[in-house]
Amino acid sequence: MIKTFEKFDVNSRQKENRLPHIDIMKGFAIFFVVMGHVIAWWYPDFSQNINLLPFNSICLWKFIYSFHMALFLFISGYVAFNPNKTYTVKKTAIRIFSYLIPFISIGILLHFFRGSVITNYWYLRTLSLFIIVLFLFIKVFDLIKVKKRYIIDIALVILYILIFQLLKYICTLHTICDLIFDGSHLIYAIFFISGWILRKYNTIEIYVASDIIASISFIFMFLYLITGYPLLDIKIHSFLCIFFFLNISKKIESQRLASYLKHIGTETLAIYLLHFFFTIKLHFLGQYLINYSNADLSTSLSLQLFIGTLITTILIKCSVFVYNMLNKNQVLSVILFGEIKKYI
Predict the structure, then answer these.
(1) Averaged over 54-70, what is the pLDDT?
(2) Which of 68, 140, 221, 340 is 20 to 30 A from residue 273's alpha carbon, by CA?
(3) Is residue 171 within 8 Å of 183, Cβ to Cβ?
């Protein structure tokens, strides 16, 4: 229940609690999310015709979609629960409602604005489910008192993955279950729980974010970019991409690019919610790329990268601007963006 609309300043405390390299990773992730949607809208009926399009014309899109949501859910798991803090039912419930409110309200607005379905924001619903289950698991497994805590956490991770594998299977059998839990995206549970365990045992992070792992990851990423086929299982490929960006995000913390990525990394929810309203159909660009699909891959890829980066940057700017404007209204900040934790 909203007790008051009088805000308190949490900016200083939030800045202290932020992890710079994670904000940079979030910046990478949301940029790729928007760019993927930008490129898809260059082609009519993209989802139906994707297999008919020349590889050179969508090589960047295929590369982005091979890991971008895995990266996003990994980061979400990493920041879901700080191992040094205690989380109550109330605090977790507030977080869940802060995701589900915009999932419904912005989803309805988008439906009337451009006829899109509310499931465009599937990430918020899936994230809410992942957090609820992890919260319950943590509370239950904390009741088990053992000296070697890592054994309990390994059991938690395994059971967590199995639960969602089972739920995914059930969703294939029952339409109602699929409508509620969105079985097609439950595959990302493994990335979410991996982010959580990596933060809790940061010694693992030192190894997976090493220069050697990042170099190996880069080779496999490059090969996928130029061929469109992973040499390894797609989940392993996604993890390698995650480890690469984890390494890079730490390396560039002091560089100019990092400041931009950190900025958009702190505005991921706003960008994710609002960029759909600014994404436009530019079919002439898609046709242009198809016409030049016989050109060398380097030319086609460069065109996609340059044009896609420009449009994506503009969309992100527009999204953040509109969010900052609307968020000043205390009522709209709640009903559109789920900013209820500021007022409770």
Answers:
(1) 93
(2) 221
(3) yes
- pLDDT tens-digit profile of 100-127? 999 999 999 998 887 766 578 999 999 9
Question: Which own/partner pairs from 258-261 qualify as long-range (CB within 8 Å, at least 24 positions apart)?
Answer: 258/20, 258/24, 260/27, 261/23, 261/24, 261/26, 261/27, 261/28, 261/31
| Beta carbons within 8 Å of 283's beta carbon, 6+ residues apart | 42, 43, 44
Find how far residue 251's CA is from the centre of its chain. 21
Q: How many residues does the chain have?
A: 344
- Percent pLDDT > 70 in the chain is 93
Closest CA to 262 of 250, 272, 274: 250
pTM over 0.85: yes
- Do the Cβ atoms of 112 and 264 come closer than 8 Å? no
> DSSP H helical segments within the chain, as ranges?
11-17, 20-40, 46-49, 55-64, 68-80, 89-114, 122-141, 149-173, 175-181, 189-200, 202-208, 211-227, 234-251, 256-265, 268-278, 283-291, 297-326, 330-335
Please state, in angstroms and rounded to a whole number, the distance separating the CA atoms of residues 214 and 288: 35
Express each pLDDT in 302-319 by its tens digit. 999 999 999 999 999 999
Taking every pair of C-alpha atoms in the chain, what is the biggest distance, in angstroms?
64
C-alpha–C-alpha distance, residues 188 and 76, integer Å: 11
Task: Please tell me the predicted confidence (pLDDT) of residue 255.
Answer: 86
User: Buried (b) or exposed (e) across 136-157, using 16+ Cβ within 10 A?
Assistant: ebbeeeeeeeeeeeeeebeebb
First to last CA, the chain: 7
Whole-angstrom distance, CA of residue 124 vs CA of residue 26: 15
Q: Quick check: 192 and 73 in contact, CB under 8 A?
A: yes
Q: What is residue 209's DSSP assignment? A: T
207 token code pair: 């190894």
